[in-house]
Amino acid sequence: VKFYDCSSAPSPRRVRIFLAEKGIAVPTEQVDLRNNQQLSAEFRALNPQCTVPFLLLEDGTGIAEGDAICRYFEETHPEPPLFGRDAKEKALVAMWEIRAMFDGFYAVAEAFRNRTPGLKNRALTGPRDFEQIPALVERGLARIGIFFATLDERLSETKFLASGHFSIADITALVAVDFAARLKLSPSGEQKNLTRWHAEVSARPSANA
Amino acid sequence: VKFYDCSSAPSPRRVRIFLAEKGIAVPTEQVDLRNNQQLSAEFRALNPQCTVPFLLLEDGTGIAEGDAICRYFEETHPEPPLFGRDAKEKALVAMWEIRAMFDGFYAVAEAFRNRTPGLKNRALTGPRDFEQIPALVERGLARIGIFFATLDERLSETKFLASGHFSIADITALVAVDFAARLKLSPSGEQKNLTRWHAEVSARPSANA
Q1: What is the ipTM metric for this complex?
Q2: Is A91–B64 a contact, with Cβ atoms under 8 angstroms apart?
Q3: What does pTM read for this prediction?
């Protein structure tokens, strides 16, 4: 098994934190996203989607997408469970994980990728080029504000996002909130629940991953 | 348990097909999306995200997001497994499910919601209004073309999207491909693998759900 990572990128950080929480060490290779190594013929042959994180299994099967990679390790290393313990908690984890990804991480990516000069024509990840759409910067920033408010309200009810237990949803939300800092956006001091949660999850050793 | 559905909408169709494959009957209530019933105070009190599909559990817990609802029923009714059988297949199902959702369903939604006159200011689902962005129509259409090509290539290797077994990834991809028909887009006759798969999954009784 080999894990293709980029230590400076937020998307693979999700997998790194997940592996740290599980205590799993995986042989890792860095992919230099800044110099578009993910678009090289060599990497494209491994992962035609040209994305990291990416996991190569012993039998040559490639697993792209952070959520899918984490689900693989949830099966091979069930403890501690990070996708929920019973039907209800698994559903809540899946719901908040999707929300943290679509409404959080993708909102930040929408604003970030459509305005960063170095990402001109790279507004979407993947093998094809897509031009930046300036209107998506504004939309992305608005969506991040909604995401923070949603988290703050949810975290007034529960210790962690899905339930009383730390889960992949907290990991994805943490990565999204920290990714937003690249746009100089962070939770306001009035968002006390979000601020409390962010301090707690950031204090876990895995957050350094 | 109560399932909130809209029989004319593609997003809850994913859950309907899943339930049909499992042979599960759930008390169901229709939500009239055409008249914005999902934005009513009554429905908003149930699901603040104002989306269907939505599942209300006996204890009052609400589960939004089709993938999360399906994972709940995968736990309560494990047979037949629709999220994979072992670590590798579960990872492949998760990967293709994400791809069918992000690169397929959301690409169609991007083109559809940003150009349909009746969805002015409703370019994104959820409680907040977002204006249509014309450039996303073109981007969405381009992404659908890429999605079809990706499916066709993948289905030259496997019977179903993730493996030799039918899974939630096939359900989501089927719903996405059929949703694209609303934009008058369908697989070309030259995409023989995609055409073969689409005929097969459409012939399953669940496809009528």
Answers
A1: 0.96
A2: no
A3: 0.96
